[in-house]
Amino acid sequence: MTDLINDPTGGMPRLVEIMRRLRDPQTGCPWDIEQDFATIAPYTIEEAYEVADAIEREAWDELKGELGDLLFQSVFHAQMADEAGHFNFDDVANAIADKMVSRHPHVFGDESNAKSAEQQVQDWEAVKAAERAARKETGVLDGVAVGLPALLRAVKLQNRAARVGFDWPSTDQVLDKVIEEANELREATDPAHIEEEFGDLLFVMANLARHMKIDPEAALRGANAKFTRRFAAIEAALAARGSRPEDSTLEEMDALWDAAKLTEKS
Question: Which has the closest alpha carbon to 62: 75, 47, 76?
């Protein structure tokens, strides 16, 4: 196995063996040995976001490494599951392969593939609904993972409810609800009530994104990138004056922010 570990063309078998060695109770890495599913899960989420970040920046050279980091997370979880007698990495690969084949009868079966993308999505949802029923998940919202990022889970919950008709028919009605929730937040006084109303407003904003066919995560990432870019312009302008943000007034920084906005639009 030493030759496999040092083989630059070893592919998946090499990675799986490296993970097994890292977790070896006698000769492995103390940090890796101490980990469990719960401690590794945050790293898995972080790596998924780093993949999304590389794609957002079109950093294709970085994407290869980020995808490798994410793949390693799957291998890590599979190794811990193998040690506990649950399943191994081959089981993981075979499970997703079986799922892809069963969910694409128009590619791997005898169904016609002369369907629109929308029809294929509907077929996909029908197959997933059947799978949920087989797992005794009978409620409309059953199976929407609790551990998803809250914004993403809000959209998924709303999509599920919309499939059975529990949805506003127009975007204007959602906008009216946004205004209503904003006013309720303005009127809230105690901390618990403020937090509740703020959550309601975020939930409705997620619904608005869904009605407008916007990915709210992508929209917020864009806003974050814009804020970072413009604040960097403020810092650069202040540095050119021999100053720093902490030495400046809000009025000075706001004027530089407006100048950065104009520069971007020109």
Answer: 47
Please report, rounded to a whole number, the percentage of residues in the chain having pLDDT higher than 90: 71
- Please compute the mean of the pLDDT values over residues 227-231 and round it to a whole number: 95
Distance CA 86, CA 80 (A): 9
Q: Per-residue pLDDT tens for 170-195?
A: 999 999 999 999 999 999 999 999 99
Q: Are residues 95 and 16 in the same domain?
A: yes
Q: Is the pTM of this model over 0.70?
A: no
Give Cβ neighbours of residue 150 (< 8 Å, ≥ 6 apart). Answer: 202
What pLDDT does residue 109 have?
83
Helix or strand (DSSP H, E) at 31: helix 30-34
Domain that holds residue 49: 2-102
Q: In this structure, is residue 145 part of a structural domain?
A: no
Closest residue by Cα to residue 219 from 238, 236, 206: 206
Q: Which of the two residues, 129 and 43, has the higher pLDDT score?
A: 43
10 and 49 share one domain: yes
Judge contact between 144 and 192, C-beta under 8 A: no
Contacts for 75 with CB less than 8 Å, ≥ 6 apart? 15, 16, 19, 89
